[in-house]
Specification:
By secondary structure, the chain is an alpha+beta fold. The chain is 23% helix and 39% strand. The protein has an 8-stranded mixed β-sheet with strand order 2-3-4-1-5-8-7-6. 22% of the residues are buried. The model has no long low-confidence stretch (mean pLDDT 95). The structure holds zinc ion. The site of zinc ion has 6 residues, from strand 1 and strand 5. The site of zinc ion (ZN) has 6 residues, from strand 1 and strand 5.
């Protein structure tokens, strides 16, 4: 079911500012930046080993990420596991009584299907599941 840890999502106020730390000070290499959710969310991916760090910034203070930043400030926002079959992963979670944020997978700009599990069901951690096209 779970293949690997795909990425760790870090909520930041400004991706360009955050890249100064992750690229220059920490020495990581930027793979790509992308705009998601109709331009409301900017993301930057920095590969490390078989996983990545995802920096996430939002323009929408009413979004989940916007509320997270207002309440808690910058920091680790979610972890993402790659799965081989997201539908069966969600079914298994439902059978086990887990609360899902996305009952059916969403699709991002790269055609990846993803869904979030509520932190209340995951010991305080927002978990994203990801299936490659
Ligand atoms: Zn993510």
């Amino acid at each position: 079911m779970i293949i690997r840890l795909d990425h760790i999502g870090i909520a930041v106020q400004n991706v360009s500012d955050a890249l100064k730390f992750f690229e220059n000070a920490l020495g990581m290499t930027l793979d790509h930046v992308a705009s998601e959710e109709g331009g409301k969310t900017d993301v930057a991916f920095l590969p490390v080993g078989g996983s990545e760090v995802e920096l996430v910034q939002t323009q929408d203070p009413e979004s989940g990420l916007g509320k997270f930043l207002a309440k808690r400030g910058e920091g680790i926002h979610h972890i993402c596991f790659e799965v081989d079959d997201i539908e069966s992963a969600l079914a298994r979670l439902r059978e086990n009584g887990a609360q899902l944020i996305d009952e059916t997978p969403r699709v991002n700009a790269s055609g990846m299907r993803y869904a979030f599990i509520h932190p209340k069901s995951a010991h305080g951690v927002l978990i994203e599941l990801y299936q490659k096209p």
